[in-house]
């Protein structure tokens, strides 16, 4: 979903489209890595002094309900990322620099034995480890 589609859908669902909300949508859609609510809040606060953490959090909930972003846990912290609707992905996530490397993935092509009468609607698959850059830097990856 691009920026205009998202703003349109929010408008149709009865949300007011303020400058602040537009800026928030831009930030979220342009993140190249998973982010936390605090990071987003701090980024927003640079432009919109007085923006509250509650507002940021509420908007993240809305984006989640609209299936624009999804959450996952890393280092005991909830992270958000934009959902790729065209092609669901498997994500390789570096535990050091938090770089996320998406890879095409089709669960139908994987040898799995799904539970009987299970109807799959959505899936989310994350692989945690260390990227090439971080593995080289120090070879410390046994912790
Ligand atoms: Zn890394």
Please name the defining characteristics of this protein.
5 helices, alpha+beta, 2 domains, three-stranded mixed beta sheet, globular, Arc Repressor Mutant, subunit A, two-stranded antiparallel ribbon
Q: What is this structure, in a nutshell?
A:
By secondary structure, the protein is α+β, with helices and mostly antiparallel strands. It has helices spanning 3-12, 19-30, 37-47, 53-65, 132-136, and strands spanning 69-74, 77-82, 89-94, 100-104, 125-129.
Describe the SSE topology:
Layout: H1 3-12, H2 19-30, H3 37-47, H4 53-65, E1 69-74, E2 77-82, E3 89-94, E4 100-104, E5 125-129, H5 132-136
Parallel strand pairs: 3-5
Antiparallel strand pairs: 1-2, 3-4
Helix pairs in contact: 3-4
The structure holds zinc ion.
Residues 94, 96-97, 99, 130-131, 133-134 line the site of zinc ion.
Organism: Cohnella cellulosilytica
Protein name: Fur family transcriptional regulator
InterPro entries: FUR, Fur_C, WH-like_DNA-bd_sf, WH_DNA-bd_sf
What amount of the residues lies in strands?
A: 15-25%
Bound heterogens, unique? zinc ion
Low-confidence stretches: none
Instruction: Please state the structural category.
Output: alpha+beta
